[in-house]
Amino acid sequence: MAGTSERRVPLAGSNRAAPVGATLVGDVNPDERIPIVVYVKRRTPDKFAPGSAGDLARLAAPITRHQLATQRHRSHARAIARVVRLAAERGLTVGRSDPVARTVELAGTARQMAEIFGATLRTYRDGERAFRARVGGLTVPAEIAPWTRAILGFDQRPLRTRTPLVQAQADTGSGSGLWPTDIAALYGIPLDRDVSSICVGIIALGGGYLASDLAMAVAGMNRPPPVVVNVPPTGNDGSFGSNDVADQEIALDLQVLAGLLPKGKIVVYFAENSAAGLTDAIHQAVFDEEHAPQVVSVSWGSAEKYWTEPGRDAMQAVLADAARLRVSVLFASGDQLATSGLTDGKLHVWFPASSPYATSCGGTQPLAAAGNGSAAAEAVWNAGAVGTGGGISDAFPVPDYQSHLTLPKSQNDGAIRRGVPDVACAAAASPGYRIIVNGEAMAMSGTSAATPLWAALVAIAIAARGEQIGLLNAALYSNPGAFRVVVQGNNRVGGKGYDAGPGWSACTGLGVPKGADLLAALTAIPVA
């Protein structure tokens, strides 16, 4: 056991406040076993700022999973060995070490974690469940501090998907939304392409789905069924009915993708609803050699302020790997307008949607349909209590692909940084996305509906070009003519927020897709 004289180094940016809106139950039992994951890094800092021209050029260099794994074994083996050695000396259980993920799994009692890492662990209840949360900062033994990127797993506070406020009713023949294929038609997204070569991953943080619901939905859309794979294989076993919002989310993601990608493969990656769970699930998808998804759709996240700097850094490392391996990852921008539902007087954007390595999806309200079946115009989705997230990041500088834009100043501090979202499409409850949950039709809303629609559009482009794209944003921002700009509305709360207007906005990004034009632009990206 470490003595009190051991030198420990504060882990910069690791401080966590108590969970907002949750009730303290008490301290975690000091004998409770706590599994954690230590993320390691190289000792030298990154040469480039995230999202800079040099950074994006570095990530665009061609590399295979095998080549990247070989590099990681060479560059991170010593750092991992240091962590393993320290853990063994301190009496912790050492689990899997993964040089590719740059992680070491450890386990020990809450008492040991307090002694070694300074972790203060408490139990809270938020009205739906009890969960463990870490408060205060972490310290790291000096012998591993220079190589420690992050330590995740202490904190289990849940991330968010769309708000529970959804329009749901039994299908009486009207008022239950439009099928995802009908929503796609608003944007001229073709439904007759061969996408049998496509695999799309979705992240499921809790909940489950019924195969009968998916079958009923694709039959309603007159589409052949996709191949659906669960990772782990038992991930969906007995999960349906445990969480209504999570169940609805999986159904929404699955059924939107199934409607637009007939005969494609959809892989559902199940994980714990926490920052650690999301980070690990995306890593699993990116490095899944068996299924090799070309696109990953993520409907989860939370305000940047809820992520510690090390936690963001760990996720950034995973998303950078996605860019290296040409896996396109799309995120919902959130459903609580410019404040992300916080009442601290500031505006907040969601992370990971704000990552310069992510394509973030905002939401619109389609207006009266035109005679050709497309939306005549669209406004920002703002229903008062809910609406599209978007704004200026507090964490990331302006990425190279946004450097030519006239971005608004942050209403928090007047600075100009990464703007969110990048793109948008229908997200409002009217008309809403018709899906089937437990045998009944529901009209669903949210940027978590817009995200799988965009993921499907990207997948169709990848099928047409026969080559993965990876990070989409440079191509998107180079083709503003492939979008219809949204000029009506705002995402303000109490007067604070951002307005739509000509060009990019912090409500709907570049706008909504012109399906044929956007597919042509993505298909024309030079093949490396």
Main attributes?
528 residues; alpha/beta; 8-stranded mixed β-sheet; globular
Task: Write a brief structural summary.
The protein is an alpha/beta fold.
Verbal overview:
- The protein is built from 11 helices and 26 strands.
- It has helices at about 55-60, 65-90, 110-115, 180-185, 210-220, 245-260, 275-285, 310-325, 445-465, 475, 515-525, and strands at about 10, 25, 35-40, 95-100, 105-110, 120-125, 130-135, 140, 150, 165-170, 200-205, 225-230, 265-270, 295-300, 300-305, 330, 350, 360-365, 380, 390, 420, 425, 435, 440-445, 485, 510-515.
- Strands 11, 12, 13, 14, 16, 18, 19 and 22 form an 8-stranded mixed β-sheet that branches.
- Strand 6 and strand 7 form a beta hairpin.
- Helix 5 crosses helix 6 (about 245-260), helix 7 (about 275-285) packs parallel to helix 8 (about 310-325) and helix 9 (about 445-465) packs across helix 11.
- The radius of gyration is 22 Å and the shape is globular.
- The relative contact order is 0.14.
- Residues about 165-175 have low confidence and may be disordered.
